[in-house]
Design brief:
With 508 residues, the protein is mainly β. The protein is built from three helices and 34 strands. The chain has three domains: 178 residues, no CATH class; 82 residues, no CATH class; 187 residues, no CATH class.
Length: 508
C-alpha cells in the first residue's frame, strides 16, 4: 500500500514534496460483509494537505472496488474535503502492459535455443497486443469489471514485432524491459486531486463498496439416540476473493435481502447497540446481534485477519435443549409439466392425477426464547445428525432455510421416509363447462406404515381446479390451510394401511 502526494497552487501541479510514502494506515480497517457477494470497506488515511490543490494516490483498494461508491471524508466533520477529480486505475503492470508502454521503441528479447543456450535479440514493438481496460469493458460487458481473471490478464491481442527489418506476429522471446514505464502501477490505485482552502492535517475516512466478499451461515443440529431434543451450533463462513488482505479487521455481517443496483451503490453505516447470541457463560467473547434498518447486523467479537482467497469460519451461535418435532408429510399430487400453465384445467380429467409415492420427512422447531433460541437466524444450510447406539453421530439430512425472524417456526425437509409410502388416485371426475358450470372430483389416498412404531402422516391436498370449492364427502375431517389447500392427519399403527377419501365440488 502506498500513498503519495504533491502540492499545487493556482491549478499548477508543482512537485514540492513526496509524503506518506509506504505509510501504514492510521487504524484497523472495518468491514461490513453482505451475503450477496459484496462488502462495505472503511479505512483510515492520514492526510497532510497544503493550501490549494493536492494530488494523492492510494494503492490499497481491492481489485473489485466499485469506483463510483468511493467516499472520502473527515469523520469528525471539521474539515471540508473538495474532491476536484478522482481517477480509478486498474491496469497493474504486466508483460502486456509494459509492451504497450514501450510501443514504438526497441527492447531486448531472450530467445531460448534448442541446445539450451539463450540468445539476446533486439526487436521494435510495433503493436503490443495489449487491450486497455475500457476496451475490454466494451467487449465483455459490465461484468468484466468484476472478473478478476480478466483484469489480471489485461485483455488479449496479437502483438507485432519488427526483428531485423521483418515483421512477426509473435514475440521472438522473453521480453527484457530496461525499467518500469513512467505510467506503470503495481496495484489498482485511486488518484485524487483534493482542494484545501488552508493547510489541514487529520485522519480521513475512506469507504467504498467492493465485490468479491461474501458470507454464509451453516447450522449443525444433533439429536440424541432417542427423542427429538436438539443441540445447535451455528457457524458463519467468510469468503474473501476481493484481491486484498485485511489485517486486524473489525467485521460486521449484514443479514437480509438488501436491494443492490450495480454498479451504483449507496452504503449505509451501522449505529446502536445490541446483545450477545447464545453461548457458553464465562467463555470467549461472543458474536453480537442487533437490528439495523429492516435487517440484522452480526458483529464478530474480536478483530481478525482475513487473507485474500481465504475462507474463514467463526462460531456465532450455540444452543441446547431445543424441542423439535419430526413430521411425515404426504403431498401426493405430481403435476405433469407438459401442460401449459395457462391452459384451462377445469375440463382436463387427467391433470394432476399422477401419484407421488414418497412421504417427506420434515424437522420442525420454534425459534423462540422458551425453546432456548429466540434469535434472528440468517439464511443458510442446516445439517441434521443423530447419535446411534454406539454413540457416533450419523448424518440424517440437510436443507437450506431462509432468513428466519425470532418467534417464527422453522420447518426443514430432510429426505424421504424409507418405511412409509403413499399412493394417490382419482376415482371420479365429472364436469360441465356451460355458464354456471361445475366439476366433481374424488380421490382415494392409501398410506402404508412398515415401521415398528406408530407414525402420524400429514396429508396435503391442493384444490387446483378452481377457486370456488366445497368438500362434499370425506372419510376424515380436513383442516383448511389456505384458499386452495387442505390437510388431513392420519395415524398409522405398525404395519397398517389406511385409506383416505374425499370429493371436491367446484363451481364457476
Amino acid at each position: 500500500m502506498k500513498i503519495s502526494c504533491v502540492t499545487s497552487h493556482c491549478g499548477r501541479l508543482t512537485a514540492l514534496c513526496a509524503c506518506f510514502t509506504a505509510l501504514a494506515l492510521a487504524a484497523d480497517p472495518a468491514l461490513t460483509i453482505y451475503n450477496q457477494n459484496f462488502a462495505v470497506i472503511r479505512e483510515t488515511l492520514p492526510l497532510d494537505l497544503k493550501a490549494g490543490n493536492n494530488s494523492l494516490q492510494y494503492t490499497g483498494v481491492t481489485a473489485q472496488v466499485e469506483p463510483d461508491s468511493v467516499i472520502l471524508r473527515d469523520p469528525a466533520g471539521k474539515q471540508v474535503l473538495v474532491v476536484v477529480e478522482q481517477n480509478y486505475r486498474n491496469d497493474p503492470v504486466s508483460q502486456e502492459r509494459l509492451l504497450a508502454l514501450y510501443e514504438g521503441k526497441s527492447i531486448e528479447f531472450s530467445v531460448h535455443n534448442q541446445d539450451g543456450t539463450n540468445t539476446i535479440v533486439s526487436g521494435r514493438i510495433v503493436r503490443s497486443g495489449y487491450v486497455p481496460h475500457y476496451q475490454a469493458m466494451q467487449q465483455y460487458g459490465p461484468q468484466y469489471q468484476y472478473n478478476q481473471m480478466n483484469m489480471a490478464q489485461g485483455g488479449a491481442g496479437q502483438p507485432v514485432i519488427e526483428v531485423g527489418g521483418k515483421l512477426q506476429f509473435t514475440l521472438p522471446g522473453l521480453p527484457i524491459f530496461p525499467a518500469l514505464g513512467d505510467d506503470a502501477i503495481l496495484k489498482p490505485a485511486l488518484d485524487w486531486i483534493l482542494y484545501a482552502a488552508q493547510p489541514a492535517k487529520f485522519d480521513a475516512e475512506l469507504s467504498y463498496v467492493s465485490g468479491g466478499m461474501t458470507w454464509s451461515a451453516d447450522y449443525n443440529m444433533v439429536a440424541p439416540e432417542t427423542g427429538d431434543t436438539l443441540d445447535l451450533v451455528g457457524w458463519v463462513t467468510l469468503d474473501n476473493q476481493s484481491g486484498k488482505q485485511f489485517d486486524h479487521a473489525h467485521i460486521k455481517l449484514m443479514a437480509g435481502d438488501v436491494n443492490k443496483v450495480q454498479p451504483q451503490v449507496q452504503a449505509r453505516f451501522a449505529a446502536g447497540g445490541g446483545g450477545a447470541l447464545g453461548g457458553i457463560i464465562g467463555g470467549p467473547p461472543q458474536v453480537t446481534e442487533k437490528t439495523f434498518e429492516d435487517y440484522h447486523l452480526y458483529s464478530l467479537p474480536l478483530p481478525t485477519t482475513i487473507h485474500d482467497r481465504e475462507t474463514k469460519q467463526v462460531e456465532f451461535v450455540r444452543a441446547s435443549g431445543i424441542q423439535s418435532k419430526r413430521l411425515y408429510v404426504y403431498d401426493g399430487v405430481q403435476f405433469d409439466r407438459n401442460y401449459n400453465a395457462y391452459q384451462d384445467v377445469r375440463n382436463i380429467q387427467q391433470y394432476g392425477t399422477q401419484s407421488n409415492p414418497h412421504v417427506w420427512v420434515m424437522r420442525e422447531f420454534s425459534n423462540n426464547d422458551a425453546n432456548h433460541l429466540g434469535i434472528p437466524l440468517p439464511k443458510g444450510r442446516v445439517r441434521f445428525y443423530r447419535r446411534d447406539q454406539d454413540g457416533q453421530v450419523e448424518f440424517t439430512g440437510e436443507n437450506e432455510i431462509d432468513h428466519t425472524p425470532k418467534d417464527e417456526t422453522v420447518r426443514v425437509y430432510t429426505g424421504n421416509a424409507f418405511d412409509i409410502t403413499g399412493e394417490r388416485r382419482q376415482t371420479r371426475f365429472q364436469s360441465q363447462m356451460q355458464p354456471g358450470g361445475w366439476a366433481d372430483e374424488s380421490f382415494e389416498i392409501k398410506l402404508r406404515n412398515h415401521k415398528k412404531e406408530a407414525a402420524t402422516v400429514r396429508v396435503v391436498e391442493h384444490l387446483y381446479r378452481w377457486s370456488n370449492w366445497v368438500i362434499t364427502q370425506e372419510s376424515a375431517q380436513h383442516r383448511q390451510v389456505d384458499s386452495r389447500t387442505i390437510e388431513y392427519e392420519v395415524t398409522l399403527q405398525p404395519d397398517e394401511e389406511r385409506t383416505l377419501t374425499y370429493t371436491a365440488h367446484y363451481t364457476w
